[in-house]
Amino acid sequence: MTHISRRRLLGLIAAGAAGATLNPSAADVAPGMRKKPIPSSGEGIPVIGMGTWKTFNVGGDRQLRLDRTRVLGEFFRHGGGMVDCSPMYGSAGAVMGFALAQLDNTDGLFAAEKVWTNNGSDTRQQIARLESTWDIAPFDLMQIHNLVGWQAHLETVQAMKQEGSVRYIGITTSHGRRHKECERIMTREDIDFLQLTYSVTQREAERRLLPLARERGIAVIANRPYDHGPLIRRLKSREKVPEWAEQAFDCRTWADFLLRFIVSHPALTCAIPATTRVDHMNENMRAGAGPMPTPELRQRMARFIEAL
Amino acid sequence: MNDLSSYAIADFVPFTAEVYFRLIERVSETWWPLHLLTLTAGLAAAGLAWSGQTRSVGGLMAAALAWVSVTFLLTGYASLNWAGSWFGWAFLLASALLLLSVLTQPAPCQMPARTLRRRDRVPRLAGLALTALGVPLYPLIAPLAGRDWSQAEVFGIHPDPTAVATLGIALLTLHGYRLWLTAIVPLLWCLVSALTLQVLQAPSPELLYAAIAVALLTCVKDTPLG
């Protein structure tokens, strides 16, 4: 008879519970995550990705790292693709490296990072550090964060793309900053991606940047789709999802409403909501699997939110 | 960076309240029961400062600042905030400046009696109030705000009470440019921390703003800049 200590028994129970949580059944996975093509290559990526600003910056806290691993596991279970990070996000890259190492299934990962330094000669070193932190190479997408030192960085990442050291390159902005400069870069430079803030309440990009992205064949990533959280919290606490939206495109949650508004724009490729919660991740991912609103419905959705 | 003016304060706080308070908790767990020693040292520093024994006080406070720099800011906080290591080095600098200031401060008996009378009353009361806030009162804030005792912030373990107490002790013991030199880093930290707590929608940034106001007004009254 094999003897087993109490401590080992408790350890096995805990490991079993963790495993069950990290690899839950596939019963509640929404079928058919939609994909959109990256215009410069035709490669399809899921329309719902994942941001990591604040949510994955948990330092060395093992308990919180395991919590975030569960969130990431759920993301992949639903067929998620793009994970977006930055050196500005503290330990988020290291936590991503930890989480990826814990998970059995990371199929479909589209790893997006950023260069963020004023030093134009530090591009390659920073990217090498990020690769080491994530334990991944090459990154699928390397972006120049908030256009910081963009001329020097863009030159280097373009060379790295030629060498095969990154697959796609892009620029980022947020909160509607520096749109004119983005426009100049989109017009004059060879980039694959533009990341900007776009949501049902932040629609400045519709005027110039989104039409230009379509014209120039540039994929667009929407950051802060919930206006950093308060928008969806306010809606959830005060309003029910309108019946007409449910009837028209099976919109059952506010995540459906807000995310489908974004990714149904013809210029948009992907939205990257961030969360620390598995239930919110489920909501986000289901939004990418259902029917999308028509242009007329999008107008109605915008009017509905404006009227609140 | 190039367009700093277009950033909001929230853009410089890259973590959630949950993560920040977990860091406070984890550092506490790591060093318990050192808290008892640091609290005793803080109370002893207050007593020594009140009785004018500035050199011993300087040693205790410099040690507390350096310890918090290494064990909280450089080891833990720096992993959450890209500017965290700057604050760690700033605390080490503050530790050195405090030590230098108390070692070069003229002994009270070397000052003219009239100067002592004029200078001492307000700074001593303000200093005592801030030291009381930073040492015995600060650990009570977390439970009073509805957080767990494990997240209580303690002088010599966490940066906020250490910075507040340093301001208090500096007001009790230093004057002139030495007071300003010693106060500048704790003042800046209190401001950064108050703004952080405000972004995190956490309770008690008002206490830090109040500490800044008391310390600044007293410093200006003691030695007007310029």
From TrEMBL, chain A:
Q: Which domain of life is it from?
A: Bacteria
Transferase is among the record's keywords: no
Q: Give yes or no: UniProt keyword Coiled coil.
A: no
The cross-references to Pfam families, in alphabetical order and at most eight, read: Aldo_ket_red (PF00248)
The protein's UniProt keywords, in alphabetical order, are: Signal
Annotated InterPro entries: AKR2_Oxidoreductase, NAD(P)_OxRdtase_dom_sf, NADP_OxRdtase_dom, TAT_signal
**Where does the record place the NADP-dependent oxidoreductase domain?**
48-293
Kindly provide the name given to this protein in its UniProt entry: Diketogulonate reductase-like aldo/keto reductase
> Where in the sequence is the signal peptide annotated?
1-26
From TrEMBL, chain B:
Transmembrane feature ranges: 31-50, 57-80, 86-104, 125-145
Identify the keywords attached in UniProt to this record, alphabetized: Membrane, Transmembrane, Transmembrane helix
Annotated coiled-coil segments of the chain: none
Record has Membrane as a keyword: yes
> Which InterPro entries does this UniProt record tie to the protein?
DUF6064
What this protein is called in its record is: MFS transporter permease
Which organism does this record belong to?
Chromatocurvus halotolerans
The top of its lineage is: Bacteria, Pseudomonadati, Pseudomonadota, Gammaproteobacteria, Cellvibrionales
